[in-house]
Write a structure and sequence with these properties.
It contains 7 helices and 15 strands. With about 300 residues, it is α/β, with parallel strands linked by helices. The strands form 3 sheets. A 6-stranded mixed sheet has the order 3-6-9-12-14-15. Helix 2 packs across helix 7, helix 3 packs across helix 4 and helix 4 packs antiparallel against helix 6. The protein starts with a helix and ends in a 9-residue tail after the last strand.
Amino acid sequence: MSRPREEETGQRLRRAIDRYVGGVEGRWRLSAVGDPPRPQKREIIEILRLFQEVVYPGYFGETLLYRDNLRDHLGDVLFRIHLRLTPQVEKAIAGRGGGSAEAREIVATLFERLPEVAGRIEEDVQAAYDGDPAASGLDEIVLAYPGVKAVFTHRIAHELHLLDVPLVPRILSEFAHNETGIDIHPGARIGRSFFVDHGTGVVVGETTDIGDRVKLYQGVTLGALSFPKDERGKLIRGAKRHPTVEDDVVIYAEATILGGETVIGRGSVIGGSVWLTTSVPPGTRVTLAGDQLRFEPRGPSAPPAG
């Protein structure tokens, strides 16, 4: 390139930079300049990895664990989680006037709930093993199943959501979404022994209620049918928009179930590619026959689905 051409290109580059920088302040929706510090995504992800060490001792982390050093190691990791999570929570609640004392209280409450959370995760792992004949053992489930990773992350994120912590639960859920292809909003209420098989493309909306022993396959959407608005045309946030799935339901691949008033009754089976916006009675099998939905009672003697 000739020198005049190089100089012209350099001038264009400087003008482009000046033009962009000069317009930054006008794009205030994209800027956090001058605002209080926000939770750091990388730090929150590292904290999640520490929770893995605590919930799955011996599976994650660098330390070789024995019964003799287990209690000391877990106590040390939990203390490190406390030291790292508390300032992230404090940043998250600063916008509503929360401070360090409230952040410490939130983390203490989370730790008090952790035994129950770990118990739920153990049930999820067992449900995955019981529900997949291809699984060779619990090691494979814990280390290699994306559905288990997504549900583990949800169990932690949901507790922080219940404790009214902004932003941090969403960072956790979106990390799991990015890693696994499974999108579970931290507000979704999920019962015991939950299993997402294969998982890619699963979406579970914020106000979804899922009972015990529910199994979802890839591509399932539990979504909203519409978004209610107030008299000014603003979205009404927090209203029930997503379905309720009762106990012992199986939903096969690519099924879509929409609406806050839609209830899938206990023991039902929803077939692949079914599109539902109405409730289904308990014990019903719903399948797609051509372009029509077929509703059939499974009967009291029907074998377990899945």
